[in-house]
Specification:
Helix content is about 40%, strand content about 15%. It contains 13 helices and 13 strands.
């Protein structure tokens, strides 16, 4: 894989912004009406709360457009798969504002590329278009977005299985649904998971679960998964890792994993506050905004329940970091403060939000070695509750996995 790799560390593992568990917003520094606006579209709380918490921190700092500030926020529909016209309209509608200079979509659900294309067709070439975790085809997205950011699913496809092996896993249960499996990066990661399992002596199995964006909604999908988990643990055993591609399904899986004594390597949409607090009944009010303290409080509960070393997470929320990081990056680009090192600028923006984390970064690379030069990938190490960081990223991914699709 032709990747630009950088392992970047900061000394202080502290964090002053907010996450899913609560908010401690900074005071707005707006003293005059801005010369431009930046729009950001996110999913709602029922799908993924982290990115909205990031927006709340931005609004606290820069103010809402409606109040004379910089930030214009729109919420995309929960049933976005069935409401594509609305998705496209909400994204493209941000360009109706003559002062709009950047549009960010986090997460980049299906319809994001069409929304960006509509902005271009409206003649708004002056608007910077950014997205995180896109679900549209990479070849479509590369031609309409200025800049794309995503977690590195190729590296995760190998490292997640190495972590699972170290946690004692004998089976890796991949839980997803057709809509997600039609997403290139997710289907490619699944293929890497399968090969890594084969090579490392772990059984790989696929279980179809309900789509939270479907007819039964997020609550219905969660209940069905909660009901099916005992059967799956009976079938595959306690030394099976249960992994899902959907944020909304983390809570019932984590709750059952702890209850039934199984394994959970990490979330698909990485965040210590997505799934864990509700699954464990942990109140994070007293540590809101302090990510290391949040991790430690969740860890204490997991250890007390006898599950030390059997569940992991990223120590910061990736989509939260993306809301803030991409906004600040867009602002720097508009203000002429960005450098010619785009990857370096992205990592720097994410570092500000995630002090103390180790990041590995690169560009999107196909199995044949060709790249998408405006598609940037980031990943951090998994923190295993009761054990600490896995440390598996100190060793490079074998070349064979970089050519799998």
């Amino acid at each position: 894989m032709k990747k630009l790799v950088g392992i970047l560390m900061l000394c202080v593992f502290a964090f002053s912004l907010v996450g899913c568990g609560g908010s401690q917003p900074a005071q707005s520094n707006q003293s005059a009406a801005p010369a431009y606006h930046i729009g950001i579209a996110t999913l709602g709380f029922d799908q993924s709360e982290d990115e909205i918490r990031g927006v709340e921190a931005l609004i606290a700092k820069y103010g809402k457009v409606e109040d004379g500030g910089l930030v214009k926020h729109v919420v995309l529909p929960a049933n976005f798969a069935e409401e594509q016209e609305l998705v496209i309209s909400l994204i493209s509608g941000l360009a109706d504002d003559p002062l709009m200079k950047a549009v960010i979509v986090n997460q980049g659900i299906q319809g994001t590329a069409a929304g960006f294309q509509k902005i271009k067709e409206a003649g708004r070439d002056d608007i910077i278009l950014l997205t995180n975790m896109p679900q549209d085809d990479p070849e479509v997205m590369r031609n309409v977005a200025t800049l794309i950011v995503d977690s590195d699913n190729v590296l995760r496809g190998y490292y997640d299985i190495v972590r699972a092996k170290e946690m004692g896993a004998t089976t890796f249960v991949h839980m997803s649904f057709p809509r997600h499996m039609s997403v290139y990066v997710l289907s490619r990661r699944r293929a890497i998971y399968e090969q890594a399992c084969k090579d490392l002596g772990i059984e790989f199995v696929f279980e179809t679960v309900p789509d939270p964006a479907g007819d039964i909604g997020a609550a219905g999908a969660q209940q069905q998964v909660r009901d099916m988990m005992p059967r799956l643990v009976d079938k595959y055993g306690k030394d099976a890792v249960y992994f899902t591609t959907n944020t909304g399904l983390h809570e019932p899986i984590i709750a059952r994993v702890v209850e039934l004594g199984a394994l959970f390597v990490d979330q698909d949409d990485m965040s210590p506050v997505c799934g864990f607090p509700s699954a464990l009944g942990v109140d994070l009010t007293d540590v809101a905004g302090d990510w290391p303290a949040i991790v430690k409080k969740i860890e204490a509960d997991i250890v007390a329940k006898g599950a030390s070393g059997r569940l992991g997470t990223w120590p910061y929320a990736f989509t939260y970091a993306a809301s803030i990081g991409l906004f600040e990056l867009a602002k720097d680009m508009i203000d002429g403060k960005a450098t010619n090192d785009t990857l370096g600028d992205i990592v720097k923006a994410f570092q500000v939000v995630t002090p103390g984390c180790e990041w590995v970064s690169g560009v999107f690379t196909y199995p044949d070695g060709s790249t998408i030069d405006n598609y940037y990938l980031l990943t951090m190490d998994t923190y295993v509750f009761g054990k600490g960081y896995s440390g598996v990223m100190s060793e490079p991914v074998p070349e064979k996995y970089l050519t799998i699709e």
